[in-house]
Amino acid sequence: GLGTRMSPTNARRRVAMTCLTGAAVLTLAGTRMPTAALAVITLGLAASCLLGLEAAFWTTATELAPAAPGTAGGLLNLMGNLGGVLSIWLVPVMTEQWGWTPTLSVWGVVAGVAALCWVRVEARATDP
């Protein structure tokens, strides 16, 4: 697998950056699809990309705090849930003000920025 060809940190980084970049590109593409069916498929694939990086998130979080992996996982979960709670309020406000295309475009750009943030992640607790 990927983890045997490179360090675990680089493997997780590659998975996270690829999934987040895929989510960004597919979200932006989904807003410009000519039919609703194509938009649903494209946005569904974007959501799948986001779900595909769960393992990288969890293993990196626990390796960033090897003395307190439960706390690190709890903090990761808290931040994810806060994002979910904020989106319940923020997405309807954004779509009412801007419409769906600009709103989804903003979140596509956010995914792209998140991908770039992974360049700085250094979790080397189990790296050789």
Give an account of the 3D structure.
By secondary structure, this protein is mainly α. 80% of the residues lie in helices and 0% in strands. It has six helices and no strands. It has helices at residues 2-5, 8-30, 36-51, 54-64, 69-98, 100-117. The radius of gyration is 16 Å and the shape is globular.
What's the main sheet like? none
The share of residues in helices is over 70%
Oligomer type: single chain
Global Rg = 16 Å
Number of helices: 6
Q: How do the helices and strands follow one another from N- to C-terminus?
A: HHHHHH
Structural class: mainly alpha
Number of strands: 0
Q: What general outline do the C-alpha atoms trace?
A: globular
Strand content: under 5%
- Average pLDDT: 92
| C-alpha termini separation | 16 Å
Unreliable residue runs: none
